[in-house]
Amino acid sequence: MMTITPETLWHILVSEAMGQSFTGLLVRRIHPDATCDLFLGVEEPGDQRALILQVRCEHLPSSSYLPEARGIEIRILPLGEQCGKGALILVLKEKRFLDIFQTLVRDLAEALAQVRTEDAAVELFLSRIRLWQRFLEVSEGDGLGEEAQRGLFGELWFLREHILPDTGPSGVSFWTGCARTPQDFQLPAAFVEVKTTLATHYPCLQIHGLRQLDDSDVPRLFLCHLTLINEGEGETLAAVVASIRRSVRERQPYTERFEALLLEAGYLDSQCVRYDQVRYWVCHADLYNVSGDFPRLCQCDVSNGVGGVNYTIEAAACRNYVVAFTEIATAFREG
User: Fold this and answer.
1) Do 257 and 129 touch, CB atoms closer than 8 A?
2) How far apart are the C-alpha atoms of 225 and 287, rounded to whole Å?
3) Would you report the helix, strand and coil content of the chain in percent, each value rounded to 5?
4) Which one, 18, 58, 122, 201, has the greatest CB density within 10 A?
5) Are 182 and 298 within 8 A, CB to CB?
């Protein structure tokens, strides 16, 4: 474990660089007992924070294999033929991502400190950055917006209440919406899309794309509508995350899978204090069987070449298609 936080060490390095009118990369080693050489650094001018992994040159990847992500940069730096070493450098390029970058570096440094070979360290370095790519794509640096919070709350509530009780920890693998699939859950014999609305007299559901409610290529399709109230008592988004973590903590592969999915969804623990002001409780939940004349648009309803279609449907128009939530358990048995 690091005895000093990255934030503190970076502040120290910035102060040293300013005192010396330093130009270049000023570094300090971290995790001295690790197999690979790890450093935190500050690049001047610009106070750019960095994480450096130093390995022998034969273990460095080709520059064409370096991942790209918004707000950060990955470089390869040769350190000279005599020492035969080079470095992979992760640099923060946009300061609005500082909080995220600090979390990324802590995660990456702790993982790299456990690796036993330089080859494995390089592979881990690149794979973790690729995992964070999706988060950085969707993040604006200050956490999830209100609508995104509500949507994630609904998906996690459905996972906890209607997937995990039938499957145990392995059920987290059925949560696929973070990977941009048309529906949020892909079960063995059914797909499920989850929509959340705040309580109103005439709720409308936002449908994104022509495939979201198209059952032509899926075994069976359900639409779950959750009506939320965000006043008074209820659960925070962080509380729902914590409850699912407790449910899956005994099964390491699924724990890691759930954490990766949270990251893809744009959720970071370091930002959860920003969500604690909002508490939701589900005052009503409906499950609709999407088939036949269910109110929707599908690809077959529009001319060839038409795409990017978003539309709304009135929840009241779906009442004739309500089915029991026990249909979800049936979908597992049939699969």
Assistant:
1) no
2) 6
3) 40, 25, 35
4) 122
5) no
pLDDT per residue as tens, the chain (335 positions):
456 788 889 888 888 887 777 788 899 999 988 888 999 999 888 889 999 999 999 999 988 888 888 889 999 988 866 678 999 999 999 888 888 888 889 889 988 999 999 999 999 999 888 888 777 776 666 678 889 899 999 999 999 999 999 999 999 999 998 878 999 999 999 999 999 999 988 899 999 999 999 999 999 999 999 999 987 789 999 999 999 999 998 888 899 899 889 988 888 887 888 888 899 999 999 999 999 999 999 988 988 888 889 999 999 999 999 999 999 988 877 76
- Count the neighbouring beta carbons within 10 Å of the beta carbon of residue 22: 16
DSSP class of residue 291?
Answer: -
How far apart are alpha carbons 326 and 187 in whole angstroms?
A: 14
* Sequence letter at residue 136: L
> In which region does residue 292 sit, left (phi positive, over 0), alpha (psi from -120 to 50) or beta (all else)?
left
What are the tokens at 119?
């080859």
Tokens 């350190």 belong to which residue? 79
Distance (Å, whole) CA 204 – CA 201: 10
The answer, as to whether pTM is greater than 0.90, is no
Contact predicate 276/239, CB 8 Å: no
Q: How many of the other CB atoms lie within 10 Å of CB of 249?
A: 12
